Amino acid sequence: MVERTDVVVVGAGLAGLACVTELQRRGVEARLLEASDAVGGRVRTDVVDGHLCDVGFQLLNPAYPALRELVDLDALDLQPFAAGVRVRRRGGVATLGDPRREPRLLPATLRSGLLRPRELAGLARWAVPVLGGEKRIMGLTDESLAASLDAAGVRGPLRRQVLEPFLAGVLADDSGATSSRYARLLVRWFLLGAPAVPAVGMRALPAQLAARLHRPAETGVRVQGIDRGVDGVTVRTPSEAVEARAVVVATDVQDAVGLGAVPAAPPVGGLVTWWFSTPSGMPQDRLLVVDGDRGPVVNTAVVSAAAPGYAPPGRDLVQVTALADAGLTDAEASAQAARLWDADVTAWDLLVRHDVVRALPRAVAPLRLHRSAAVGGGVFVCGDHRETPSIQGALTSGTRSADEVAAALGA
Ligand SMILES: Cc1cc2nc3c(=O)[nH]c(=O)nc-3n(C[C@H](O)[C@H](O)[C@H](O)COP(=O)(O)OP(=O)(O)OC[C@H]3O[C@@H](n4cnc5c(N)ncnc54)[C@H](O)[C@@H]3O)c2cc1C
């Protein structure tokens, strides 16, 4: 039997959820079809022995502009990390903090040995456009992050031991090829907001968006094909064909290629996160730890220090994240954790390991924002790969695609 509807949205990740939210606001009827058993896409949380293990360590930055219109941040009860990092390097540990938000870290920051006047001046030059906002950043000629840091004269330990290892974890890429525009946007958001996790896990973000939909997402429905016709578009699932006036493909980029919605996928970076339950007593300063010696682990953190609800009483929850390319075994990840925390890890329990091989599409120069979602024949595309590889990118892209669909349908 052929079903009819105004719009079908394929994929209930953040982009698909944002798209349907906006269509609903404009009075456009939409069905949201999701292949997996739950909404959220790459934002999910596993509950393991009473611990909340996000499927790949990730943080929500309340400074993301897209959150303001779509999300009730108070209801997420955000648990912030400290605005600083601890750097483990041969010869000890250094701590760096944002003096505006973490004045308590100022003495340690000044003692860190990471602040050299010439490099600091270079970093200030690099960061000037960051203060000017998105328009100013997007007005710059784009180049690779590495080239932009070279040009500004950022060449010392702050770059090699802090900035690059930190950004490798955020970008799932340690090649330096990321767009300098995107790197500056990221730094701007980090300066404006305190990255956090919701008290009950990252899953709370998509759950909030899904709960507001008048017509719930249909999970367990994999779209097998999309056929463009003269009167509209037909979406094929294993059990039905749905005719729609417009279809929005809100999958990740590889699946969008598979459905014929975009011609080719950019390279995608992978991340692996190990979640360890440890006896209590881990540092509670809410700092992300990076490896100043550029080891295979890009970051590690006591997540329960920031968000106590992530671990049951008497335990701490530690995440250890590496690039998928590093090919780390569980034993090697434990050994790296022991080194980075200077801890005996024999009593640590590995709860779960998440291999997210398709974590983040690479944002290489030139970064383009606000591309049209329309790809012809009543088909539209949204998702982080159309904007920036982030929660911000996915949400903005979803909302914008809904604007375009509504305009195309005259709604
Ligand atoms: C490990 C990790 C760490 C991250 N860290 C951060 C971070 O700290 N900060 C940040 O801002 N961002 C981070 N991100 C990025 C952010 O999570 C993503 O950019 C965002 O969730 C992408 O959302 P999306 O809707 O574009 O795509 P997805 O979340 O991939 O959603 C696509 C959906 O489409 C569904 N689908 C695919 N094919 C079909 C089909 N044929 N039929 C029906 N449904 C289909 C999929 O099942 C999926 O649910 C991280 C991501 C990962 C994986």
Describe the protein's architecture and organization:
The protein has 3 domains: 2-43 and 203-266 and 371-409, 3-Layer(bba) Sandwich (FAD/NAD(P)-binding domain), CATH 3.50.50; 45-80 and 196-202 and 268-361, Alpha-Beta Complex (Polyamine Oxidase, Chain A, domain 2); 116-192, no CATH class. It is α/β, with parallel strands linked by helices. The longest helix is centred in the C-terminal third of the chain and has 19 residues, at 391-409. The protein is built from 14 helices and 19 strands. It has helices at 14-25, 65-70, 73-76, 106-111, 117-132, 134-138, 145-152, 157-171, 180-192, 204-211, 253-258, 303-306, 330-341, 391-409; strands spanning 2-10, 30-34, 45-48, 51-54, 78-80, 84-89, 92-97, 196-198, 218-219, 225-228, 233-236, 241-249, 268-279, 288-291, 297-302, 315-323, 349-361, 374-376, 379-381. Strand 1 (2-10), helix 1 (14-25) and strand 2 (30-34) form a beta-alpha-beta unit. The strands form 5 sheets. Strands 1, 2, 9, 10, 11, 12, 18 and 19 form an 8-stranded mixed sheet that branches. A 4-stranded antiparallel sheet has the order 15-16-13-17. Helix 1 packs parallel to helix 10 and helix 5 crosses helix 7 (145-152). The structure holds flavin-adenine dinucleotide. Flavin-adenine dinucleotide binds at residues 10-16, 33-36, 41-43, 56, 58-59, 222-223, 250-252, 255, 271, 356, 359-360, 383-384, 389-394.
